[in-house]
Amino acid sequence: MARAARQDQPRSSVWLESKAHRRRGGGQPSGLDRARIIEVTVRLLDAEGLAKFSMRRLAGELNLTAMSVYWYVDTKDDLLELALDEVMGGMRLPDPGAGEDWRDQVRALAREYRTLLVRHPWVSALVGAFLNIGPNNLAFSRVVQRVVRRTGLPAKRMTSTISAVFQFVYGYGTLEGHLASRAAAGGMSVDEYFQQALSTVTSAPQAADVVKESQEIMAARGGDTVAEMLERDFEFALELLIAGIDAMVAREGAAFGGEETPGTPGTPGES
């Protein structure tokens, strides 16, 4: 009975399967492999978005029947999870053992993650939908943990520190990706879409007070293009977070009698 219960449980990740994820029976389509299927999947997701993606659409792009694709993957979810890990492999990860300042490495990781989310807007919806235990995501998670350990914060502060930085990046990159997608869907540049949206909001009576209060802030924001504005906002917010980590390192050190913890400036500590 216990064995039957385990078999009835839904598969939680394609990466937990020990098989090659191919259906039995039938011949393998010639000139096709899983890498090619994932490549085309990513291209379609980038071009058309997650909502329009289907196995039938993919098969059409590959000049195959939908059933031929199932020779390589059991379900659409399996394929999406494979595509998710594939694009995560495009991030350039710093070497936590290279002796570089942890602040620069946090900046590098945050920028790479933001770029991923903007370049592939569909990623945001999938990050929380799967376990994300593919090799590329695990490599990213390992580097993030090792870099954050180098800040000097105690282990009990690791998860909240990682969340503060990378949930901020996730939110920022997701909204930035949505902005780019909506502009493209309307056949406009991001700057054109932004001006149209601003004009619409400004003319809405219910938004007039808020817009008026925001004018000074927007004027002081700086930047001639939306890209410049977004870049300035992101970089300053990231510096706020890094400064906050520094402040918390100092506070944690004071709580332990002012002793330096491994990984703080001036010490060679390394995890």
TrEMBL record:
Q: Name one GO molecular function term.
A: transcription cis-regulatory region binding
What superkingdom heads the lineage?
A: Bacteria
Among the GO biological process terms of this entry, one is: negative regulation of DNA-templated transcription
Alphabetical list of Pfam families matching this protein: TetR_C_1, TetR_N
SUPFAM superfamilies tied to this protein: Homeodomain-like, Tetracyclin repressor-like, C-terminal domain
Which residues lie within the region annotated Disordered?
A: 1-30
Question: Which keywords are on file for this protein?
Answer: DNA-binding, Transcription, Transcription regulation
Which residue ranges does the Swiss-Prot or TrEMBL entry mark as DNA-binding? 54-73
* Residue ranges of every copy of the HTH tetR-type domain listed in the record: 31-91
Q: What is this protein called?
A: TetR family transcriptional regulator
What organism does the UniProt record list as the source? Streptomyces cahuitamycinicus
